[in-house]
Design goal:
Elements (H helix, E strand, L loop, with lengths): L6 H22 L5 H19 L7 H25 L5 H27 L10 H23 L5 H28 L4 H28 L7 H30 L4 H21 L1 H15 L6 H12 L8 H10 L7 E6 L11 E7 L7 E2 L4 H5 L15 H7 L4 E7 L3 E8 L10 H64 L3 H26 L14 H10 L5 E5 L6 E2 L3 H18 L6 E8 L2 E8 L6 H6 L16 H11 L3 E7 L3 E11 L3 H14 L1
Parallel strand pairs: 6-8
Antiparallel strand pairs: 1-2, 1-5, 2-3, 4-5, 7-11, 8-9, 9-11, 10-11
Helix pairs in contact: 1-2, 1-7, 1-8, 2-3, 2-7, 3-4, 3-5, 3-6, 4-5, 5-6, 6-7, 8-9, 8-10, 11-12, 12-15, 15-16, 17-18, 18-20
Amino acid sequence: MTGTASASLYAGCAAISVAWTVLVLVVGRGAAARPPALAVAAVAAWAGIVALTPETPLSGFAGLAEVARSAVWFAVLLLLCRRLTATGGAVLLRGLGALGLGATLLAVVSLLPAVAGATGTWGLGTALVLGRPALAMLVVLVAENLYRNAPEEARWHVVLPCIALGGLAAFDLVLYADAALSGGFSDVLIDARAVLTALAAPLLAIAAVRDRRASREAPVSRELVFHGATLLTAGTFLLGAGVVGEALHRFGGPWAGAAQVGLLAGAVMTLAVAVSARSVRSRLRRLVVDHFFRDRYDYRREWLRCVATLSAPDAEASAEVRAIRAVADSADSPAGVLLLRDPGDAPSDAPALSWAGSWNLPSTPFALPCGHALALALRDGTWVARPGAGEFPELRSVYGPVWLAVPLTHHREGLLGVVLLSPPRARFVPDGEAFDLLRALGREVAMFLAERRAAQRVADAERIQAYAGRFAFVAHDVKTVATQLNLLLANAEANIADPEFQQDMLLTVGAAARRIETLIARLRAPEEGGVPSAARIQPLARLRQLVARRPCPVLLEADDMEGVLVAMAPEAFDAAVTHLLDNAVEASSPDRPVLVRVLRDGGMIRVDIVDRGAGMSAAFLRDVLFRPLASSRPEGNGIGAWQARELLRRAGGDLVARSVPGAGTTMRMTMPVEDPPPAAAAPARETAGAEA
């Protein structure tokens, strides 16, 4: 009686063995991984052939595959003996090799008639009973001698291959012994070989990893190993479900079919739930890392992940949440809390820390007072705190169990904050490698938060500077309005009874009030960088109006530029010209009037304001003239020239000063010409005539 095999069990064993073969080659790398991979590949080939011929699992091609599998195991063990045992055992190895070769040939010869179709079965007492059991006995003998004769320091590398291959060969002996005693092969033992072989294959993969650890570390994709282990675990689980289903099929009653279907559906559902659960994946990843890699972490992957987390946009998550995740993800922690020092507090050994953000924990404000025991423990940032069950009850009452406290230490700011982590999904005891990584990540997160605070301070300073600039502009314009009102008040004493003066006074006061309201509005709202599309002026017409209002004579020379437009707000143009005219008039003597010359230079309008005053030196022009809040006059505030240049630059123009000491100064304004659209040309000329 030859017995029959379960095709599904052997097919599952073949699939799992193929996956383990690939995993051994990927994880082991190098020549050390080839013998274990060859042993598992032989198992895959044998199981696949048995799955194709389940009616004759011990004869024909299945029998030849079994002999080849046992021969490969025997050769792998001999190779390990040659690598690890003393040189004096070479004679023994040659003798064992000869015996193995003889047993293999004997088993093959006994199977040739069945392969050729001469006989479909074999009887007990034939040479087969002597061939394959003898080969299995040799495998057990070599495995036992390999482990016993290997040096003490080398047994760690050979114990798993000896257990896996020697154990499977010993089970083959049990199978043949049972057949010899009972007169036939047991179907249960034949099917059990597939299950035991699938369970023993991982031992060879672990042996390959141990050989790799003893040599140079090779770069291995952890994600590939993890996904491979996931597939192997799922396959093993489904194989177990298949074993139970096969038992139900053979020993069950009328309900066996329904039980098989329910078992398969339940197994698939259980597998789907397990694969989708992060806690299960974390435990599997932890198991793979602990047994297949020398280092717990892939530092390149951890660094890239930390950089990607911290550099993510604020729209995805706040900076505080990203800071927590950058630390928590490396420790496989599902939640955390960030406590930070107040930006206004000075650095200290144990600063007060307050709640800044939560990830998957309550957003409950909480503060650690200055000098708290946790801050004192983390003040130098050289270690990661692991609070005990009874420590810091005030934290546990608010945020639940605290597993680790990671310090955020900055090289200049000191202890910037603390990240409190919840227990990991897959519990493990953190070692020195984990603490080193968390400390490094804590320093990186502290740098990230410190840079954000510095950027915030710079942004605040820029806003304050912009407000100060607007205030300086307003203050200078208010000074101009005050000068006009003082002049009006001085003339009022002599001309208050004149009706024309009264009318002019009302107009002047109204214009001053409107000007002050405009300045207040400018102070409240920031000025736009560009020029509104409707802000178009005729510079020559505006200059004529400004010159006509001057109390002292100002000469105006201009080319024919009627209808030429400039993209600049009227208030900005008037303010710039008024500042420059005031400075020119103050620098000139009454008998030397100021000259305003307007020319068109290609696509630019050039306005020169020329005075015949004392002039300025080259150093003054370079270092003082256009610097805000710098003035050579006691009553000046150093804003006029700087404001005029800023207003012109916002409109696309510029202001350049040319001066010779003792000969006077020329302030040259340049502005780009704005060509009006054809439909707007006629209204523009009408407006120019009205202003004239």
